[in-house]
Amino acid sequence: MVEDDPPVDKLSDEFPLLLTTGRRLDSFNTGVQTGGYTSPLRRPEELELSVADAEQLGLSDGQRARISSRRGSITAPVRIQRSLRRGLAFMTLHFPDQVETNVLTIDATDPRSGTAEFKASAIRVEKLPLAQPDPLTGHVAIPAR
After folding, report:
1. What distance in Å separates the CA atoms of residue 35 and residue 28, rounded to the nearest whole number?
2. Cα dist from 56 to 1, 7, 30, 97, whole Å
3. Is residue 30 part of a domain?
């Protein structure tokens, strides 16, 4: 008999979204078979959000956001994904040189299987201010990671 045991990392007012991580179709098998070629499906790392969550947070496609869990924070561009339900966010872990997604994940494991619980991390997402040009130099400062 299997007993339901919810994720260790509980949602809260401070961390209201559930982040799940995974792979995209173009980067299967840890990239060993796919890393050596380009794909029209491949795109940079991003945080995928539901339409409802993006609207609530005031975020649009391509805008950068700070994503935080109880373990740390990263920044990434947002991609609105119509197939995601409200409250669920998705990121891959393919491009740690672009975004270190695993900074957000938990190191808990399932007591029976030993499987890591990195598929369920409570997060919050904050809209970063748009980069503004310096009035004296005209240079645009990129918000820090």
Report:
1. 9
2. 40, 25, 34, 29
3. no
Establish if 143 belongs to a structural domain: no
Q: pTM for this one?
A: 0.77
DSSP code, position 70: S
pLDDT digits (tens, 9 = 90+) for 24-65: 655 555 555 555 656 555 667 899 999 999 999 999 999 999
Q: What is the DSSP letter of 56?
A: H
Question: Strand pairing partners for 109?
Answer: 116
Domain with 113, as residue range(s), is 17-25+44-127
Distance CA 116, CA 112 (A): 11
Cα–Cα distance for residue pair 112/3, rounded to 1 Å: 11
19's enclosing H/E stretch is: strand 17-22
Which CATH number characterizes residue 57's domain?
A: 2.40.40.20
How many domains in the chain? 1
What does the alpha-carbon distance between residue 121 and residue 66 come to, in Å, rounded to a whole number? 15
